[in-house]
Amino acid sequence: MQSTTVAAKPPVSPIFPLLVGMLAISFAPILVRASDAPVSVQGMYRMLFTFLLMLPFGAKQLRTIHTIGRKDWLLLLAAGFFLALHFLLWMASLTYTSIASSTILLALEPVFVMIGAFFLFKDRPGRLAVLGMLVAIIGAASIGSGDIGLSSRAFFGDTLSFLGALAVAVNMLIAKQIMRRVSSFLYSFIAFGVTAACFAIYNVARGIPMGGYPAKEWLVFALLAIVPTVFGHMIFNWLLKYVKPTTISMTVLAEPVGASLLGMLIFREMITGFQVVGGLFIILGLVLYMRAEKHEAGTALPADPLSANAAVD
User: Which positions fall inside the EamA domain (predicted)?
Assistant: First the structure.
């Protein structure tokens, strides 16, 4: 099995693109909540518009599409499917539960990434990382128990967000493998196209109309493509070439904080005590994990030069 060791040194410090990405994804739940269109339609146009926005900038990259092997095409299809599943589940969760609960539970993604990396790549987490995972799970249980006390509807929304976090963790692990051989731009371009196609198939199968929406909805679709996708997910996809998928997934810490504050200001959604306690536990758990990652990075051996050469710029 290949390791998830960092393949190359980034051309710029990862801190700035990480900050931009964190700010951008904080607007995602606000935009989803602002739309009255079905979430599968929002997701489809979000991915389709992003796909179209990328076209003018990828002429050189697209000429290498024929070099993608059959195995990587299958992985790309799987990555697009799980990304569509993530968006469908998580965006739907915002219909049933609060922005705070939905985004805080989505922050469990690093836990799933860590578990997946252990089984798939034999990445063994240290004791501090495992402790962080357990603390984060306690936080998720606190939020779930609080919301089930409010209503079964809120708990159902929590469950959708939880499953959405699992789906995007699978997407991240697949993406890391693909981008050993495929550029981040080409990966994003194809995966987003597959995701849009998955949503289109879903909408046709369910008989959900894909047109006839007012101008306000088209503006929201466009903003979903530009803000959290181009300036969020695409930046994270690019960074996957240089840092571990678990490091990228730690950026979800910013989304529950920023989105919860915006939810309070825009939609008057007050944060409950269970959400505060659960959110603090999840953030504490993920901070413990970050400390474990930092310690591991400081003591790790240099990256395999063959892996570095495999990364396509």
Answer: 17-143, 156-289
